[in-house]
Protein backbone atom coordinates (compact mmCIF):
# COMPACT_ATOMS: atom_id res chain seq x y z
CA UNK A 1 0.00 0.00 0.00
CA UNK A 2 1.22 3.53 -0.86
CA UNK A 3 1.42 5.66 2.24
CA UNK A 4 -0.76 8.73 1.66
CA UNK A 5 1.19 11.96 1.75
CA UNK A 6 -1.67 14.45 1.51
CA UNK A 7 -4.74 13.80 3.63
CA UNK A 8 -7.96 15.81 4.01
CA UNK A 9 -9.98 15.58 7.23
CA UNK A 10 -13.58 16.83 7.08
CA UNK A 11 -14.78 18.03 10.48
CA UNK A 12 -12.91 19.76 13.32
CA UNK A 13 -14.60 18.10 16.30
CA UNK A 14 -12.70 16.11 18.91
CA UNK A 15 -12.39 13.14 16.54
CA UNK A 16 -11.34 15.04 13.39
CA UNK A 17 -8.82 17.20 15.26
CA UNK A 18 -7.19 14.27 17.05
CA UNK A 19 -6.99 12.29 13.81
CA UNK A 20 -5.58 15.30 11.94
CA UNK A 21 -2.90 15.82 14.58
CA UNK A 22 -1.92 12.15 14.65
CA UNK A 23 -1.78 12.01 10.85
CA UNK A 24 0.43 15.11 10.76
CA UNK A 25 2.64 13.78 13.58
CA UNK A 26 2.94 10.59 11.49
CA UNK A 27 4.31 12.56 8.54
CA UNK A 28 1.24 13.40 6.40
CA UNK A 29 0.46 16.86 5.01
CA UNK A 30 -3.02 17.43 6.44
CA UNK A 31 -5.80 19.89 5.60
CA UNK A 32 -8.81 20.14 7.95
CA UNK A 33 -12.13 21.37 6.50
CA UNK A 34 -14.67 22.72 8.99
CA UNK A 35 -17.93 24.38 8.02
CA UNK A 36 -18.27 26.30 11.32
CA UNK A 37 -15.42 26.80 13.76
CA UNK A 38 -13.45 24.02 15.47
CA UNK A 39 -15.61 22.41 18.16
CA UNK A 40 -18.81 24.06 16.90
CA UNK A 41 -20.43 20.67 16.19
CA UNK A 42 -21.39 18.20 18.89
CA UNK A 43 -18.03 18.32 20.67
CA UNK A 44 -18.95 21.81 21.88
CA UNK A 45 -22.16 20.35 23.31
CA UNK A 46 -20.65 17.32 25.07
CA UNK A 47 -20.71 16.89 28.84
CA UNK A 48 -17.07 15.76 28.87
CA UNK A 49 -17.63 12.68 31.05
CA UNK A 50 -14.91 10.02 30.65
CA UNK A 51 -14.59 6.51 32.11
CA UNK A 52 -13.10 3.13 31.34
CA UNK A 53 -15.73 1.01 33.11
CA UNK A 54 -16.78 -0.99 30.06
CA UNK A 55 -17.77 -4.62 29.87
CA UNK A 56 -16.65 -5.63 26.35
CA UNK A 57 -13.04 -6.30 25.15
CA UNK A 58 -13.06 -3.81 22.34
CA UNK A 59 -14.57 -0.99 24.41
CA UNK A 60 -12.10 -1.65 27.23
CA UNK A 61 -9.12 -1.49 24.86
CA UNK A 62 -10.27 1.80 23.30
CA UNK A 63 -11.23 3.39 26.62
CA UNK A 64 -7.92 2.40 28.27
CA UNK A 65 -6.04 3.99 25.44
CA UNK A 66 -8.12 7.16 25.54
CA UNK A 67 -7.83 7.55 29.31
CA UNK A 68 -4.07 6.98 29.13
CA UNK A 69 -3.80 9.79 26.63
CA UNK A 70 -6.03 12.20 28.57
CA UNK A 71 -3.82 11.55 31.62
CA UNK A 72 -0.63 12.00 29.61
CA UNK A 73 -1.86 15.37 28.34
CA UNK A 74 -2.69 16.29 31.93
CA UNK A 75 0.69 15.04 33.17
CA UNK A 76 2.43 17.20 30.56
CA UNK A 77 0.42 20.20 31.83
CA UNK A 78 -1.12 20.61 28.36
CA UNK A 79 -4.66 20.05 29.55
CA UNK A 80 -6.67 19.37 32.70
CA UNK A 81 -8.21 15.96 33.23
CA UNK A 82 -10.28 16.01 36.42
CA UNK A 83 -10.13 12.65 38.19
CA UNK A 84 -13.58 11.96 39.70
CA UNK A 85 -15.10 8.53 40.50
CA UNK A 86 -17.99 7.37 38.33
CA UNK A 87 -21.01 6.01 40.22
CA UNK A 88 -23.74 4.19 38.34
CA UNK A 89 -26.80 3.15 40.24
CA UNK A 90 -30.19 1.45 40.12
CA UNK A 91 -32.86 2.70 42.50
CA UNK A 92 -34.59 0.56 45.09
CA UNK A 93 -37.44 -1.34 43.40
CA UNK A 94 -35.73 -1.31 40.00
CA UNK A 95 -34.93 -5.02 40.09
CA UNK A 96 -34.28 -5.32 36.36
CA UNK A 97 -31.90 -2.33 36.57
CA UNK A 98 -30.07 -3.82 39.55
CA UNK A 99 -29.67 -7.18 37.78
CA UNK A 100 -28.34 -5.53 34.60
CA UNK A 101 -25.99 -3.37 36.67
CA UNK A 102 -24.65 -6.28 38.70
CA UNK A 103 -24.08 -8.37 35.55
CA UNK A 104 -22.33 -5.42 33.91
CA UNK A 105 -20.05 -5.05 36.95
CA UNK A 106 -19.20 -8.77 36.77
CA UNK A 107 -18.18 -8.38 33.14
CA UNK A 108 -16.22 -5.20 33.93
CA UNK A 109 -14.32 -7.04 36.69
CA UNK A 110 -13.50 -9.87 34.29
CA UNK A 111 -11.87 -7.15 32.21
CA UNK A 112 -9.84 -5.97 35.19
CA UNK A 113 -11.78 -2.74 35.64
CA UNK A 114 -11.34 -0.89 38.90
CA UNK A 115 -15.04 -1.15 39.76
CA UNK A 116 -16.97 -2.53 42.73
CA UNK A 117 -20.59 -3.09 43.74
CA UNK A 118 -21.81 -1.19 46.81
CA UNK A 119 -25.12 -0.80 48.62
CA UNK A 120 -26.80 2.45 49.62
CA UNK A 121 -25.15 2.61 53.04
CA UNK A 122 -21.64 2.20 51.72
CA UNK A 123 -22.31 4.67 48.93
CA UNK A 124 -23.52 7.21 51.48
CA UNK A 125 -20.42 6.67 53.61
CA UNK A 126 -18.10 7.25 50.67
CA UNK A 127 -19.78 10.20 49.01
CA UNK A 128 -21.77 13.21 50.16
CA UNK A 129 -24.89 12.73 48.06
CA UNK A 130 -28.42 11.46 48.59
CA UNK A 131 -28.38 7.65 48.64
CA UNK A 132 -31.54 6.61 50.54
CA UNK A 133 -33.30 5.60 47.32
CA UNK A 134 -30.38 3.57 45.95
CA UNK A 135 -30.83 -0.17 45.53
CA UNK A 136 -27.43 -1.07 44.12
CA UNK A 137 -24.50 0.93 42.76
CA UNK A 138 -21.25 0.38 40.89
CA UNK A 139 -18.30 2.64 41.70
CA UNK A 140 -15.46 3.07 39.24
CA UNK A 141 -12.34 4.84 40.45
CA UNK A 142 -10.85 5.25 37.02
CA UNK A 143 -12.98 8.08 35.62
CA UNK A 144 -13.21 11.82 35.37
CA UNK A 145 -14.24 14.72 33.21
CA UNK A 146 -12.59 17.18 30.88
CA UNK A 147 -13.69 20.38 29.21
CA UNK A 148 -14.39 19.59 25.53
CA UNK A 149 -13.65 23.19 24.50
CA UNK A 150 -10.21 23.03 26.17
CA UNK A 151 -9.55 19.78 24.28
CA UNK A 152 -10.50 21.43 20.98
CA UNK A 153 -8.29 24.47 21.68
CA UNK A 154 -5.38 22.21 22.60
CA UNK A 155 -5.67 20.08 19.46
CA UNK A 156 -6.06 23.11 17.18
CA UNK A 157 -2.74 24.36 18.63
CA UNK A 158 -1.12 20.97 18.35
CA UNK A 159 -2.32 20.63 14.74
CA UNK A 160 -1.00 24.07 13.84
CA UNK A 161 2.35 23.24 15.40
CA UNK A 162 2.49 20.13 13.18
CA UNK A 163 1.74 22.23 10.09
CA UNK A 164 -1.91 21.23 9.61
CA UNK A 165 -3.75 23.66 7.32
CA UNK A 166 -7.25 24.76 8.44
CA UNK A 167 -10.02 25.78 6.04
CA UNK A 168 -12.88 26.93 8.23
CA UNK A 169 -16.26 28.46 7.51
CA UNK A 170 -16.78 26.29 4.44
CA UNK A 171 -19.15 23.32 4.08
CA UNK A 172 -17.51 20.85 1.73
CA UNK A 173 -18.57 17.67 0.00
CA UNK A 174 -16.35 14.77 -0.97
CA UNK A 175 -15.44 12.68 -4.01
CA UNK A 176 -14.20 9.10 -4.21
CA UNK A 177 -12.06 7.42 -6.83
CA UNK A 178 -9.92 9.47 -6.74
CA UNK A 179 -10.50 10.80 -3.24
CA UNK A 180 -11.05 14.52 -3.11
CA UNK A 181 -12.80 17.42 -1.42
CA UNK A 182 -15.15 19.82 -3.16
CA UNK A 183 -14.83 23.25 -1.58
CA UNK A 184 -17.47 25.94 -1.19
CA UNK A 185 -16.29 27.38 -4.54
CA UNK A 186 -17.18 24.09 -6.28
CA UNK A 187 -13.57 23.30 -7.01
CA UNK A 188 -12.38 19.73 -6.33
CA UNK A 189 -8.95 19.15 -4.87
CA UNK A 190 -7.60 15.60 -4.96
CA UNK A 191 -5.99 14.05 -1.88
CA UNK A 192 -4.23 10.74 -1.33
CA UNK A 193 -6.81 10.01 1.39
CA UNK A 194 -9.94 11.64 2.82
CA UNK A 195 -11.18 11.14 6.40
CA UNK A 196 -14.83 12.01 7.01
CA UNK A 197 -15.14 12.97 10.70
CA UNK A 198 -18.19 15.17 10.19
CA UNK A 199 -20.14 13.77 13.15
CA UNK A 200 -23.75 12.92 12.38
CA UNK A 201 -23.41 14.76 9.04
CA UNK A 202 -21.03 12.05 7.84
CA UNK A 203 -24.05 10.06 6.63
CA UNK A 204 -25.15 12.73 4.16
CA UNK A 205 -21.61 13.35 2.92
CA UNK A 206 -21.05 9.66 2.22
CA UNK A 207 -24.55 8.92 0.89
CA UNK A 208 -23.99 11.64 -1.73
CA UNK A 209 -21.10 9.63 -3.17
CA UNK A 210 -22.87 6.26 -3.06
CA UNK A 211 -21.57 4.97 0.30
CA UNK A 212 -24.50 5.03 2.72
CA UNK A 213 -23.64 4.28 6.36
CA UNK A 214 -25.89 2.82 9.09
CA UNK A 215 -26.19 5.92 11.25
CA UNK A 216 -29.20 7.60 12.84
CA UNK A 217 -29.03 10.85 14.78
CA UNK A 218 -30.90 11.19 18.08
CA UNK A 219 -31.29 14.19 20.34
CA UNK A 220 -29.72 14.47 23.82
CA UNK A 221 -29.83 17.39 26.27
CA UNK A 222 -27.72 18.83 29.08
CA UNK A 223 -27.61 21.80 31.44
CA UNK A 224 -25.25 23.56 33.81
CA UNK A 225 -26.65 24.53 37.21
CA UNK A 226 -25.07 26.60 39.95
CA UNK A 227 -24.89 24.82 43.31
CA UNK A 228 -22.36 23.50 45.81
CA UNK A 229 -21.33 20.01 44.73
CA UNK A 230 -18.02 18.22 44.86
CA UNK A 231 -19.24 14.63 44.70
CA UNK A 232 -18.68 12.00 41.99
CA UNK A 233 -20.13 11.72 38.52
CA UNK A 234 -23.44 9.86 38.93
CA UNK A 235 -25.46 7.97 36.35
CA UNK A 236 -28.93 6.95 37.53
CA UNK A 237 -29.82 3.99 35.34
CA UNK A 238 -33.38 3.91 36.66
CA UNK A 239 -34.36 7.28 35.25
CA UNK A 240 -31.51 7.58 32.73
CA UNK A 241 -30.14 10.85 34.12
CA UNK A 242 -26.55 11.80 34.93
CA UNK A 243 -24.62 14.61 36.58
CA UNK A 244 -21.00 15.48 37.10
CA UNK A 245 -19.18 18.18 39.06
CA UNK A 246 -18.64 21.42 37.10
CA UNK A 247 -16.84 24.65 38.09
CA UNK A 248 -20.28 26.31 38.40
CA UNK A 249 -21.73 23.42 40.41
CA UNK A 250 -23.12 20.59 38.31
CA UNK A 251 -23.44 19.60 34.65
CA UNK A 252 -26.48 17.36 34.31
CA UNK A 253 -27.98 15.58 31.38
CA UNK A 254 -29.95 13.01 29.57
CA UNK A 255 -33.18 14.14 27.99
CA UNK A 256 -32.43 11.51 25.37
CA UNK A 257 -35.09 10.98 22.76
CA UNK A 258 -34.46 7.44 21.58
CA UNK A 259 -35.97 8.12 18.17
CA UNK A 260 -34.38 9.22 14.92
CA UNK A 261 -33.99 13.00 14.70
CA UNK A 262 -33.97 15.06 11.52
CA UNK A 263 -30.37 16.18 10.70
CA UNK A 264 -31.57 19.38 9.14
CA UNK A 265 -34.45 20.27 11.44
CA UNK A 266 -33.76 19.70 15.13
CA UNK A 267 -34.07 22.04 18.07
CA UNK A 268 -30.69 23.00 19.63
CA UNK A 269 -32.46 24.55 22.64
CA UNK A 270 -33.32 22.33 25.62
CA UNK A 271 -36.98 21.39 26.16
CA UNK A 272 -38.79 22.81 29.21
CA UNK A 273 -39.63 19.29 30.44
CA UNK A 274 -35.95 18.38 30.39
CA UNK A 275 -34.89 21.46 32.37
CA UNK A 276 -37.62 20.78 34.96
CA UNK A 277 -36.87 17.07 35.33
CA UNK A 278 -33.12 17.43 35.25
CA UNK A 279 -33.12 20.22 37.85
CA UNK A 280 -35.31 18.07 40.10
CA UNK A 281 -32.91 15.13 39.64
CA UNK A 282 -29.93 17.35 40.59
CA UNK A 283 -31.78 18.73 43.62
CA UNK A 284 -32.64 15.20 44.73
CA UNK A 285 -29.22 13.63 44.30
CA UNK A 286 -26.98 16.53 45.44
CA UNK A 287 -29.33 17.82 48.17
CA UNK A 288 -28.65 21.36 46.99
CA UNK A 289 -30.79 24.11 45.51
CA UNK A 290 -29.56 24.40 41.89
CA UNK A 291 -30.07 27.45 39.67
CA UNK A 292 -29.95 26.66 35.96
CA UNK A 293 -27.28 28.72 34.18
CA UNK A 294 -27.76 27.35 30.67
CA UNK A 295 -29.30 24.34 28.93
CA UNK A 296 -28.94 22.96 25.42
CA UNK A 297 -29.55 20.01 23.09
CA UNK A 298 -27.38 18.21 20.57
CA UNK A 299 -27.36 15.18 18.31
CA UNK A 300 -25.68 11.85 19.01
CA UNK A 301 -25.22 9.11 16.41
CA UNK A 302 -26.65 5.58 16.77
CA UNK A 303 -25.67 2.45 14.84
CA UNK A 304 -27.49 -0.92 14.65
CA UNK A 305 -25.07 -2.73 17.04
CA UNK A 306 -24.07 0.31 19.15
CA UNK A 307 -20.46 0.06 17.95
CA UNK A 308 -19.11 3.04 16.03
CA UNK A 309 -18.34 3.19 12.32
CA UNK A 310 -14.59 3.71 11.92
CA UNK A 311 -12.49 2.71 8.94
CA UNK A 312 -12.51 2.71 5.14
CA UNK A 313 -15.75 2.97 3.14
CA UNK A 314 -14.02 3.13 -0.23
CA UNK A 315 -10.45 3.14 -1.49
CA UNK A 316 -8.58 5.75 0.62
CA UNK A 317 -11.83 7.22 1.96
CA UNK A 318 -12.45 6.73 5.69
CA UNK A 319 -15.20 7.56 8.17
CA UNK A 320 -15.27 7.96 11.97
CA UNK A 321 -18.71 8.44 13.51
CA UNK A 322 -21.56 6.70 15.40
CA UNK A 323 -20.45 7.13 19.02
CA UNK A 324 -23.70 6.65 21.00
CA UNK A 325 -22.65 9.56 23.19
CA UNK A 326 -19.04 8.38 23.73
CA UNK A 327 -17.25 10.29 20.98
CA UNK A 328 -15.50 12.75 23.23
CA UNK A 329 -14.15 10.21 25.70
CA UNK A 330 -12.96 7.96 22.87
CA UNK A 331 -11.49 10.66 20.62
CA UNK A 332 -7.89 10.42 21.92
CA UNK A 333 -7.80 6.70 21.06
CA UNK A 334 -9.81 6.83 17.83
CA UNK A 335 -7.55 9.57 16.44
CA UNK A 336 -4.46 7.43 17.04
CA UNK A 337 -5.96 4.24 15.66
CA UNK A 338 -7.50 5.80 12.59
CA UNK A 339 -4.35 7.76 11.74
CA UNK A 340 -2.38 4.51 12.03
CA UNK A 341 -4.86 2.83 9.66
CA UNK A 342 -4.70 5.64 7.09
CA UNK A 343 -0.88 5.69 7.24
CA UNK A 344 -0.71 1.89 6.87
CA UNK A 345 0.92 1.32 10.28
CA UNK A 346 0.76 -2.09 11.95
CA UNK A 347 -1.78 -1.09 14.54
CA UNK A 348 -5.27 -0.32 13.42
CA UNK A 349 -8.92 0.24 14.27
CA UNK A 350 -10.71 -2.87 15.68
CA UNK A 351 -12.49 -4.86 12.94
CA UNK A 352 -15.67 -4.63 15.02
CA UNK A 353 -15.87 -0.96 14.02
CA UNK A 354 -15.57 -1.62 10.24
CA UNK A 355 -18.28 0.60 8.69
CA UNK A 356 -18.74 -1.89 5.85
CA UNK A 357 -20.25 -4.48 8.25
CA UNK A 358 -23.55 -2.77 7.35
CA UNK A 359 -25.05 -1.96 3.97
CA UNK A 360 -26.25 1.40 5.21
CA UNK A 361 -29.96 0.81 4.62
CA UNK A 362 -30.64 -1.27 7.76
CA UNK A 363 -33.80 -0.76 9.79
CA UNK A 364 -32.92 -0.44 13.47
CA UNK A 365 -34.08 1.05 16.74
CA UNK A 366 -32.15 3.90 18.31
CA UNK A 367 -30.71 2.83 21.70
CA UNK A 368 -28.93 5.39 23.85
CA UNK A 369 -25.32 4.84 24.89
CA UNK A 370 -25.12 4.74 28.70
CA UNK A 371 -27.67 1.98 29.28
CA UNK A 372 -26.50 -1.44 30.61
CA UNK A 373 -28.95 -3.52 28.58
CA UNK A 374 -27.16 -5.45 25.86
C1 LIG B 1 -25.87 16.79 25.31
C2 LIG B 1 -24.72 15.91 24.91
C3 LIG B 1 -23.85 15.42 25.91
C4 LIG B 1 -22.77 14.60 25.56
N1 LIG B 1 -21.93 14.17 26.53
C5 LIG B 1 -20.86 13.40 26.23
C6 LIG B 1 -19.96 12.96 27.23
O1 LIG B 1 -20.12 13.27 28.41
N2 LIG B 1 -18.90 12.20 26.87
C7 LIG B 1 -18.71 11.82 25.57
O2 LIG B 1 -17.75 11.10 25.29
N3 LIG B 1 -19.54 12.23 24.59
C8 LIG B 1 -20.60 13.00 24.89
N4 LIG B 1 -21.48 13.41 23.91
C9 LIG B 1 -21.23 12.95 22.54
C10 LIG B 1 -20.14 13.80 21.89
O3 LIG B 1 -20.59 15.14 21.84
C11 LIG B 1 -19.87 13.31 20.46
O4 LIG B 1 -19.80 11.90 20.43
C12 LIG B 1 -18.55 13.86 19.96
O5 LIG B 1 -18.48 15.25 20.17
C13 LIG B 1 -18.41 13.57 18.50
O6 LIG B 1 -17.27 14.24 18.00
P1 LIG B 1 -17.02 14.29 16.46
O7 LIG B 1 -15.70 14.95 16.26
O8 LIG B 1 -17.24 12.94 15.86
O9 LIG B 1 -18.23 15.18 15.89
P2 LIG B 1 -18.51 16.76 15.95
O10 LIG B 1 -17.96 17.38 17.17
O11 LIG B 1 -19.94 16.95 15.64
O12 LIG B 1 -17.63 17.31 14.76
C14 LIG B 1 -18.00 17.18 13.39
C15 LIG B 1 -17.66 18.50 12.72
O13 LIG B 1 -17.88 18.35 11.32
C16 LIG B 1 -18.32 19.59 10.83
N5 LIG B 1 -18.99 19.36 9.55
C17 LIG B 1 -20.15 18.69 9.33
N6 LIG B 1 -20.45 18.67 8.01
C18 LIG B 1 -19.44 19.36 7.38
C19 LIG B 1 -19.19 19.69 6.02
N7 LIG B 1 -20.01 19.32 5.02
N8 LIG B 1 -18.06 20.40 5.73
C20 LIG B 1 -17.21 20.80 6.72
N9 LIG B 1 -17.41 20.51 8.03
C21 LIG B 1 -18.52 19.79 8.36
C22 LIG B 1 -19.27 20.09 11.92
O14 LIG B 1 -19.44 21.49 11.85
C23 LIG B 1 -18.53 19.64 13.18
O15 LIG B 1 -17.72 20.66 13.75
C24 LIG B 1 -22.54 14.24 24.20
C25 LIG B 1 -23.41 14.74 23.22
C26 LIG B 1 -24.47 15.57 23.56
C27 LIG B 1 -25.37 16.09 22.47
Task: Itemize the secondary structure elements and their pairings.
Blueprint (H helix, E strand, L loop, with lengths): L5 E5 L3 H12 L3 E6 L14 E3 L5 H19 L6 E2 L2 E6 L3 H16 L4 E4 L1 H7 L7 E7 L2 E3 L2 H14 L3 E4 L4 E3 L4 E3 L5 E3 L2 E4 L5 H6 L8 E11 L6 E4 L4 E6 L2 E9 L14 H15 L4 E12 L6 E6 L2 E5 L5 H16 L32
Parallel strand pairs: 1-2, 1-13, 2-9, 5-15, 13-20
Antiparallel strand pairs: 3-8, 4-8, 5-7, 6-7, 10-11, 11-12, 14-17, 14-18, 15-16, 16-17, 19-20
GO molecular function, one term: oxidoreductase activity
Keywords: Oxidoreductase
Organism: Haloferax elongans ATCC BAA-1513
CATH class designation of the largest domain:
Alpha Beta
Mean pLDDT over all positions: 95
Gyration radius (Cα, Å) is 20 Å
Identify the CATH homologous superfamily of the largest domain. FAD/NAD(P)-binding domain
Instruction: Quote the distance from N terminus to C terminus.
Output: 38 Å
Spatial shape: globular
- CATH third-level topology of the largest domain: FAD/NAD(P)-binding domain
The assigned CATH architecture of the largest domain is 3-Layer(bba) Sandwich
Into which percent range does the helicity of residues fall?
25-40%
What small molecules are bound in this structure?
A: flavin-adenine dinucleotide
**What is the number of independent domains?**
2
- Unreliable stretches covering 5 or more consecutive residues: none
Strand content: 25-35%
Order of helices and strands: EHEEHEEHEHEEHEEEEEHEEEEHEEEH
Write out the strand line-up for the largest beta sheet, numbering strands in chain order. Answer: 6-7-5-15-16-17-14-18
How many alpha or pi helices? 8
Structural class: alpha+beta
Number of DSSP-assigned strands: 20
The biggest beta sheet is recorded as: 8 strands, mixed
Protein name: Sarcosine oxidase
InterPro entries: FAD-dep_OxRdtase, FAD/NAD-bd_sf
GO molecular function: oxidoreductase activity
GO cellular component, one term: cytoplasm
Amino acid sequence: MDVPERVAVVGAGAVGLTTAYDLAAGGAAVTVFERGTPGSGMTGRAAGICYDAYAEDVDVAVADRAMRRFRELDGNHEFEFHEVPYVFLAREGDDAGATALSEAVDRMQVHDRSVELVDADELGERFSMHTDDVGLAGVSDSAGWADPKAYVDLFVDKCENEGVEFRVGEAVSIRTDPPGVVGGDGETVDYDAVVVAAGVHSRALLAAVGHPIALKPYRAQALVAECEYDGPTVYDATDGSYLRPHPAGVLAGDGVEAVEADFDDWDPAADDWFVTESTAAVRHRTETDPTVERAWAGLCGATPDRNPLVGPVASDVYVATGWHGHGFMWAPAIGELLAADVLGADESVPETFDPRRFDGDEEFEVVEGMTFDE
